[in-house]
Design goal:
The chain is mainly beta and 433 residues long. The protein is 9% helix and 45% strand. A 4-stranded antiparallel beta sheet has the order 3-2-5-6, with no helix packed on it. A 4-stranded antiparallel beta sheet has the order 8-31-30-29, with no helix packed on it. Strands 9-10-11-12 form a 4-stranded antiparallel beta sheet, with no helix packed on it. A hairpin with a 2-residue loop joins strand 21 (313-316) and strand 22. It is elongated and about 130 Å long.
Length: 433
């Protein structure tokens, strides 16, 4: 407690910071174990004058070291300087937040996902089918499959069984979900049951219709439907635009892997004479070059070093971008389908080497493009500048070996199962930073 003393019997003390002589408020001034005063905003404390034997006072403050000062008899003023206190803080690990789990079931593995205006579509299964036909050897076939719809808040809204083994989810040019089965394809309608609950209805149609009339068409611009005639067995294709009102189409960009095409056409010289005759007859019947016919006959695409041409088309604003990986160029077209020049893709420089990407993702909500890189189980995404063809800072997926990556509205979605875990394959989401 503070004491009231006469002016002639008082000791006026000023308490300052030793580093910069600033006054320190709220310093406790004690005589032994008894607090007798507290400094004001000016760092001043008024105390009784020291007795004949002198007076020892202690000064305490949370941010400064405790100090004891002795004042002689007759002292009427004084200045005390306190040293700042060092506070030892324990070690703190600063890490990035773990990805959010958006779909995890104890009874089902996540196999595929697709995000559109209705929410997230999840294809889930109990177990894969291990035995398959020779023509399906490179594909994962899923059995006992369930289609699950999560709403835009990622809450399970509806689900249904798929009546046959399936390869995975596909989408049409309007981002509507389609299931590719082993015997049929299925479109999906959202309806209501008698109780008013959401219900998923599967409508089967032919696989040939899926592959010829739906999958080739990928996007739209005013007046045109965009697609391609790409084939996994031929090292060239055309980007097409179709006018549904005029029922006419136009080729506005052709892509060729010149090195692979030379090898493809060279197969003619390795055919036997009888086979060359067959190739010439096929060429005449189909209206193609005999060397092209020979390339198909030889089964050239079965070679382990053969890779299909990768040159996807993306619509970004008013520009159509063809990322021609065969030439390492980004080719630009306006909405009237006229060429507007091209720029090199930076990740095809010689100094990039093994870090070249083979896949580009587009965030359909923001139209941003991302190049995907993978090495030693880790995956990075770099935003691609649609004007210069350069890459932004890398963004690494937290978990190793992410599967079925998609980017939507600034977030990365993928399927992952922790290593040596009994957990089912789950879908995770993390923000792009």
């Amino acid at each position: 407690m503070a004491l009231t003393v006469r002016a002639q019997d008082r000791l006026r003390l000023r308490v300052l910071d030793e580093l910069d002589d600033r006054p320190i408020a709220n310093v406790l001034v004690a005589d032994g174990e008894r607090t007798i005063s507290i400094t004001d905003e000016a760092g001043v404390a008024l105390l009784p004058a020291p007795p004949p034997g002198g007076l020892s006072l202690s000064f305490a403050h949370l941010s400064f070291q405790d100090t004891t000062v002795r004042f002689a008899f007759g002292a009427r003023s004084g200045t005390v300087r306190l040293k700042p206190r060092s506070h030892l803080i324990g070690t703190v690990d600063v890490t990035r937040p773990l990805p959010e789990t958006v779909f995890l079931r104890k009874d089902l593995h996540s196999a595929d996902l697709l995000i559109n205006e209705h929410g997230m579509w999840v294809l889930a299964y109990e177990r894969p089918r291990m035995l398959r036909a020779e023509g399906e050897a490179g594909k994962e076939i899923l059995r006992d499959t369930r289609l699950v719809l999560l709403d835009t808040l990622l809450r399970e809204r509806a689900s249904c069984l798929v009546p046959e083994d399936v390869f995975g989810l596909r989408h049409d040019l309007h981002d509507r979900v389609v299931i590719e089965g082993t015997a049929h394809a299925f479109s999906v309608d959202i309806g209501k049951d008698a109780e008013g609950d959401t219900r998923l209805l599967l409508q089967p149609f032919g696989l040939e219709e899926l592959r010829q009339a739906i999958l080739p068409w990928t996007d739209t611009i005013p007046g045109w439907v965009l697609g391609s005639n790409a084939s996994p067995v031929y090292p060239a294709f055309d980007h097409l635009a179709y006018d549904p009102l005029q029922d006419s189409g136009v080729v506005f960009c052709s892509v060729v892997d010149t090195f692979m095409m030379q090898l493809f056409r060279s197969q003619y010289k390795y055919l036997k004479n009888a086979e060359k005759v067959v190739a010439m007859n096929l060429a005449q019947e189909l209206g193609v070059d005999k060397e092209v016919a020979a390339g198909y006959m030889s089964g050239f695409h079965h070679n382990i070093w053969y890779k299909p041409v990768y040159a996807p088309l993306f619509v970004v604003g008013d520009t159509l971008l063809v990322l021609d990986h065969a030439r390492g160029r980004m080719r630009k077209f306006d909405r009237s389908l006229k060429a507007q020049g091209e720029v090199p893709l930076s990740y095809f420089r010689k100094d990039v080497g093994r870090h070249r990407t083979e896949r580009i993702l587009q965030d359909r909500a923001t139209q941003r493009l991302y190049a995907v890189f993978a090495r030693n189980g880790r995956t990075w995404l770099c935003e691609l500048d649609p004007c210069q063809g350069t890459l932004g800072a890398p963004i690494r997926a937290t978990y190793p070996y992410p599967d079925r990556l998609q980017v939507h509205d600034g977030a990365l979605y993928y399927i992952h199962r922790p290593y040596e875990s009994l957990q089912k394959r789950a879908i995770y989401r993390e923000r792009m930073r």
